[in-house]
Design goal:
heterodimer, A: 115 residues, mainly beta, seven-stranded mixed beta sheet, four-stranded antiparallel beta sheet, 0% helix, globular, B: 114 residues, six-stranded mixed beta sheet, 54% strand
Chain lengths: 115, 114
């Protein structure tokens, strides 16, 4: 089946620094990838849709200048959390649509802790 | 806007019993509904998709029903095993969003005791 990887799996950073998270589709191409954030005991909340060759689409309330998304190729999307603050600490998960665009294949997630 | 409710935050059952999880939604009826499994610290894994014209769908020990009148889906795991312990998420297509954009319920954490 389709595999989506994320790197790093966890990261600890100081407040004010930037962190980049990579999402790769390993055995298929993805013109679209989704970035989610999940707080403990909460549902996955869609942050933005990453589109290869065009700008990302951000959900309401998500600051595009703080969460920079770049869909560099058909197999790679990156999320950069700029000037990270402790409240940005969360579990970040990416996904890519499967065949037919109905289901989604998720990456293993990245745990971010901002001190 | 569409909302999804998974009424039980947690469900504890004995090994061998059938686990039944509930997903309710408001507003419009989706063309299809999906169930995912999420283990702690991991991304969700797709399990089943059921369409609006399907009443029931099965996959091994899993069964999903879809009642568009009640706006409800039930997810059953028969002959449950401790390895089935995980959080199960219900998801719907978010109309108006990007293609493939899903909205998720909070999930039900299932614990199967040996």
């Amino acid at each position: 089946g389709a595999v989506v990887s994320q790197h790093p799996s966890w990261v600890i950073c100081k407040s004010g620094t930037s962190v980049k998270i990579e999402c790769r589709s390993l055995d298929f191409q993805a013109t679209t990838m989704f970035w989610y954030r999940q707080f403990p005991k909460q549902s996955l909340m869609l942050m933005a849709t990453s589109n290869e060759g065009s700008k990302a689409t951000y959900e309401q309330g998500v600051e595009k200048d703080k969460f920079l998304i770049n869909h560099a190729s058909l197999t790679l999307s990156t999320l950069t959390v700029t000037s990270a603050h402790p409240e940005d600490s969360s579990f970040y998960i990416c996904s890519a649509p499967g065949p037919g665009q109905e289901t989604q294949y998720f990456g293993p997630g990245t745990r971010l802790l901002v001190l | 806007s569409q909302k999804i409710e998974q009424n039980s935050e947690a469900l504890n059952i004995q090994e061998g019993k059938t686990a039944t999880l509930t997903c309710n939604y408001t507003n419009y009826s989706p063309a299809y509904l999906q169930w995912y499994r999420q283990d702690p610290g991991r991304g969700p894994v797709f399990l089943l998709l059921i369409r609006e014209n399907e009443k029931e769908k099965r996959k091994e020990r899993l069964k999903v029903t879809f009642d568009t009148t009640l706006k409800q889906s039930l997810f059953h795991i028969t002959a449950s095993q401790p390895a089935d312990s995980a959080t199960y998420l219900c998801a719907l297509l978010n109309y108006g969003g990007s293609q493939g954009n899903l909205i998720f319920g909070k999930g039900t954490k299932l614990s199967v005791k040996p």
